């Protein structure tokens, strides 16, 4: 999730509420902020971390993650099948 002011909900069209969207995919976006409050209460009750950085921090985290994934992908090699293989591929095949 990304912490944004309620007045900007129309700009982000609900994309800032990823946790709630994936918990309740059919929930209309105008109800996601209400669902967020409920989910945060449940997380607090059960001592579950609810990650919700601000807009700029969320973009920094996204760029760092994309860079890390790109670095890992650049080290993948073409396997016997002719396709690029990686640790993820090995994990899916249970060979790693």
Summarize this entry quickly.
This protein is mainly α. The protein is built from five helices and two strands. The chain has helices at 9-12, 18-23, 32-45, 55-74, 87-93; strands at 77-78, 84-85.
Secondary structure blueprint with pairings:
Layout: H1 9-12, H2 18-23, H3 32-45, H4 55-74, E1 77-78, E2 84-85, H5 87-93
Antiparallel strand pairs: 1-2
Structure, described:
With 96 residues, the protein is mainly alpha-helical. Helices cover 53% and strands 4% of the residues. The protein has a two-stranded antiparallel sheet with strand order 1-2.
Jot down its keywords.
96 residues, mainly alpha, two-stranded antiparallel ribbon, 5 helices
Number of strands: 2
Main sheet: strands, sense, barrel: 2 strands, antiparallel
Radius of gyration: 18 Å
Low-confidence stretches: none
Could you state the order of secondary-structure elements as H and E? HHHHEEH
The gross shape turns out to be elongated
- Give the structural class: mainly alpha
Question: What proportion of the residues form beta strands (DSSP E)?
Answer: under 5%
Helix content: 40-55%
